[in-house]
Design brief:
The chain is mainly alpha-helical. The chain has eight helices and five strands; from the N terminus they run αββαβαααααββα.
Length: about 230
């Protein structure tokens, strides 16, 4: 366990319940009100598919909704994996495509928000969404991860500059995920975000550059969040 990062995520445990409560009042559902335990570690060694395939930055378990409802879920963050992906992949993409200097601390906070959002009361589970369930769930976690940062800024727990940086990081990191190909859930989830943001004028493409339109970004994320929640109720 890493003391500095662990202290930060422990501050978010209670805030995650407050965020779920806020969304419950907005959307008319009853939150779980169960503990969301979070731990930060450095990953020492991996094997199997992680040697040549997808290397996770975090894990949110268990998937069983009844267990999550009763006792909550546990989220584990691999600090060195987060740092390596942000520094080696996402930061150069953000600089080249968006002219953005990536802040490692805000990137870490965004990943925390993403995983917390997997633990919200509503989620894409079951058979009704078929192969789109996992991509929609990943899109939901990204969108509400951003909105969690905005929630913190609204309550003056972080600055609005940090929240807006999280929005930009979410968009830049989507390009890292699209590299996984269209058979992978994170990649399809990122394409869902891009299509929505582009359709609403929150981002435009200028050759090899992505232009962000600041005044429209947060509102576009909010409307996408509303639509994703609506889909879980259909």
């Amino acid at each position: 366990v890493l003391p500095e990062e662990q202290k930060m995520v422990e501050q978010y445990e209670g805030l995650a319940i407050r965020f779920d409560d806020f969304l419950g009042r907005k959307y008319g559902y009853t939150p779980f009100y169960t503990t969301t335990r979070m731990t930060v570690i450095d990953e020492i060694a991996t094997g199997g598919g992680t040697l040549y395939g997808f290397t996770a930055m975090a894990a949110n378990l268990p998937d069983d909704e009844e267990i999550r409802k009763t006792v909550g879920s546990k989220k584990t963050f691999m600090r060195n994996a987060i740092e390596a992906k942000s520094r080696i992949i996402t930061a150069p993409i953000a600089e080249r495509v968006m002219g953005l200097t990536l802040d490692p601390k805000t990137f870490f906070q965004f990943i925390v928000g993403h995983e917390l959002s997997h633990g919200l009361r509503f989620r894409f589970a079951g058979t009704e969404f078929g192969p789109l369930a996992s991509p929609l769930e990943e899109a939901k976690a990204d969108v509400f991860g951003v909105l969690f940062m905005c929630f913190l800024a609204d309550h003056r727990l972080i600055t609005w500059e940090a929240a807006e940086n999280a929005v930009r990081i979410c968009i830049a990191d989507g390009l890292r995920e699209i590299r996984f190909n269209l058979e992978e859930a994170h990649a399809v989830g990122s394409l869902i975000k891009y299509q929505w943001l582009h359709a609403r004028g929150a981002l435009t493409f200028d050759g090899t550059k992505i232009r962000l339109h600041r005044n429209d970004l947060v509102e576009a994320f909010k409307t996408l969040g509303d639509e994703l929640h609506r889909l879980t109720q259909s």
